[in-house]
Structures are given as C-alpha cells and as structure tokens.
Description:
By secondary structure, the protein is of the alpha/beta class. The chain has two domains: 2-166, Rossmann fold (3-Layer(aba) Sandwich); 196-330. It is 42% helix and 13% strand. It has helices at residues 8-16, 42-56, 60-75, 91-105, 136-142, 151-164, 170-175, 186-195, 206-216, 222-232, 240-251, 285-291, 297-301, and strands at residues 2-5, 22-25, 82-86, 113-117, 147-148, 258-260, 281-283, 303-307, 310-314, 319-322, 327-330. It has a five-stranded mixed sheet with strand order 2-1-3-4-5, with helices on both faces. A two-stranded antiparallel sheet has the order 6-7. The chain has a two-stranded antiparallel sheet with strand order 8-9.
Amino acid sequence: MLHIVNGDSVGTKLKEGGALGDILVWREIYTVGPVFEQPSLPANRAARGQYLEQALGIPQQLWHEGLEAQEKMLASFQQHDDIVLWFEHDLFDQTILCCLLHGFAGQALGHTRLHLLSINQYPGIPLFHGLGQLSAEQLSGLVGTWHEISKEQLLLGKKAWEAYTSPTPEPIARLLQEDTSALPYLHDALELHLARFPSVRNGLGIVEQTTLELLLSGVDTPMQLFSQATDKLHVLGMGDIEYWLCLRRLSQGSHPLITIEGSEKIPTLNDSPHAFLHVKVGLTELGAEVAGYKADWIKLNGIHEWYGGVLLEGSTPPWRWDRQRSAISRL
C-alpha cells in the first residue's frame, strides 16, 4: 500500500499510528506561482522553480531534487496493490488531488486500486483546517475509512486540473456550473480560488481584502493577521509562507497599502519568523481608501501575478472577480 499525503506532519503521524505501507509526502504548493497541465515538462518546471525561489525563497536546486524524488516514487505506483490519497477540503489540497488524478487518468492502472480519504470536519474540532490538526491516534482511526476512487472522480479530477491550469479562468467558471458532486469539496475550493482574483470594486483579492478589514478592526501584528485570516478563509488552506507573500505585496510597490514597523524582514522559507510575528502592521491612507472601495489598487500599482495558470499583468488586467455576482468578469 502507498499513502500519498499533503504534509510531513501527517506522514510522520501516520507512521507513528502504525499505518501499513509506504508514505509519500507530496511537497508542492499549487496555490502559488505558475502551474501547468504538464508540470514535469522542462520549460514548465524551470518557470515554476524560478518563481518559487524569487517569491518564497525556495532554492531551485532543492525544489528540483524534491520533485524528482517524489515523481520517481510515484512512477513506480504499479508496484503497489492499493494507493490511498489523503487530501482534505481546502484549495491547497484539492489542487494536489486534482493534479494526481490527472496523472493517474492518463495511465494504465493495471491491478493497482486507487482510494480517497477526504474530509472537511472531525468530531471535537470546531474549526477544521486539515489533517495536520489530528493526532497519530486520530489519524489511525481513519485508516480503512477511505473509498475506492470511481471513474467519474478520476475524470472530474482530470478536468478540474486542466481548468485550473488554463491560461484563462473561463474553464473554471464553466466547471462551477456543472455537477462536481463526485468530488464534494471541489466546487467551494475553486470558487474561492476565483475570489482571489482582483475585485471589480477595488482591485483586491479576497486575501488582501480580508487583511485590510482585519487591520481596520484593530488587528495589528502578523501573527494575529495570519491566525484570523486563515480562520476566515480556511477553505484556502493557506500556510504562513504564502500569507507572508501577501503582506510583502501589500507593503511594496509605488502605492503600498500597509506599513510594517521596524526593520524586520518579511520571512521567506529559510528565514526565522519569530521576530517578525509581533511587529506592528498598519494601514496607509491609501490602504484605508482601497479597503473602503474608494480607490482601485491595480489601477494605481499594477499587477504581475499568477492565479493557477492565469497570469495577470499591468494596470488593466482583463479578469476581475465580481463578488456580488459570484462570477469572474472580463473587462
């Protein structure tokens, strides 16, 4: 048996709980940077590695070595009778799940059976963020509760990955109008992904808007902002390194929306975050105006950012999120 999981803590606890078989920790973060339908192609891999090093501080060589190791292990999947995919409800996990289903859908499975364990809640945990919250004993209790992946799930995952990696958000918008119940958490995760696009009202995505609203309410340190933003937006499955990137964008450029007190560097992967967690964060005058929908940050500051397979550039990007209509709009 092969278990594929989304984090080292889950993999470690599964081993501690006595789960039988091999464990593959899938170390990718498809919610950040450019993603491609065929991520293993050399040109695609190079573009993604360069972005992740610049944005998150992940050394390209380390990232490439990790990819090669996990892809090598996955390539021998037919040596296993059963493969279990452990992925929860949030966008972070759903994108990994769909990427894996896309890969399996294009191959002959032979005698290998695919299984899925996917949950969005757990008894006794009021706000379920993910499997990493569970103890080794709790994870052990989930062993055997998975279900064999159907052909419908396999094909839906493949279609969703193709939509997520498309250079326009239109395939996702179309998919959201279809029946996606075969993967019950996919719809909400993809809809929240579209809400990350700049708003038609002020140019902010849902993460940036939530951050400014928290600042307006009196929250004023990175630690508090991260904790409360990820509680409000738990369906994103956003980690700290991803959120620090958001704060970096808001504090930089020709028209910053926030100020960060002191000289503490906003951390990337290899930086210790401890000193940064408790510095003071404030709104600029423009930040307050944008938060109140009185100015458009993209028109003032421009953008160069990836949303799945979509690259938005310049001060007039063609795609915006219309929250009132819950729809992506082309300008």
